[in-house]
Amino acid sequence: MKAVRVHEVGGPDVLRYEDIPVPIPGPGQALVKIEAIGLNFIDCYFRAGLYKVPLPFTPGNEGAGTVTAVAPDVTVIKVGDRVSYAPIIGSYAEYQVVAADRLVPVPASVDFRTAAAVTLQGMTAQYLACSTYPLKPGDTCLIHAGAGGVGQLLIQVAKMRGARVFATVSTKEKAALARQAGADEVILYSEQDFEAEVMRLTGGKGVNVVYDSVAKTTFDKSLNCLGLRGMLALFGQSSGPVPPLEVSRLAKNSLFLTRPGLGQYTATREKLLQRAADVFGWIQAGKLKVRISQTLSLKDASEAHRLLEGRKTTGKVLLVPG
Ligand code: NDP
Which of 130, 238, 290, 293 to mutate to test the pocket of ligand 1 (most atoms within 8 A of CB)? Predict the structure, then answer.
């Protein structure tokens, strides 16, 4: 089968399109024929070596397709089932073996491309807005990179929960997309001081929660945007990691700081299925819209990484095998 492989970590050019054998499912595993692959920023962290795995490896953390084989001990899923999964590394390929209990059934009315577009980023938006800081009507939140993959979904989920949503973006085109997703106020953090804007818009009170996935260039001001007992959910680092923090900085407003990850929020099969069911339910009810902005061939994975890291993408980018 064809797969993208990383033999040494580095820039987008280290992604090589190669032939490797189709894997065979071991105990507890299923083989999935992949129809669509979700591109995620975490793929760049692995490729660059920021997150470490033994070399060589197949990158990619999200896929959707059909189960074509299962190990004899597998009972939770069967051959022919339509499934998606995330975050499980190895999806930049035509086939992948996945622990069967990490597979999520995809409803018949949801196509594979949509499933590959919302499994990772949709469940992330779900856990951030419903569990990490469970938004309630009247809350205010700030979402950075509001036109991004997670960003557009998180804005929609935050609005569903009744929050007033501020979003940051770098360009006017992205501002229009964040507004379309439902953001009440959009701040161009490339031109405006987002801390000053948030303080102005909240009458000096600050927000209840900042969902910050940009990190290095936003972290300091994100902390300053928080009101009394506010929470900073630092869930990514698109601009680079944050430097060490003097914990006493949290004392100013009795703040909470958390560094959440999807893996921990879907640690049990029950939680995985519950979060996925919420996401697919919202899609089926027309409450959550997913915007697939680009679809590239799997062999063009390097180009996809260049676009994502170059801030040239909006919404979701997919890779398709074949
Ligand atoms: P996005 O589609 O949001 O792309 C990243 C965006 O970040 C860019 O489009 C850009 O938007 C913004 N950005 C700001 N500064 C930079 C920079 N220096 N370089 C590149 N981009 C920058 O990606 P994803 O939706 O895939 O992921 C968003 C973030 O969420 C990532 O940090 C990812 O790691 C994290 N994440 C975390 C999860 C978790 O469970 N912890 C799960 C899923 C994602 P703009 O131009 O508007 O600034």
Answer: 238
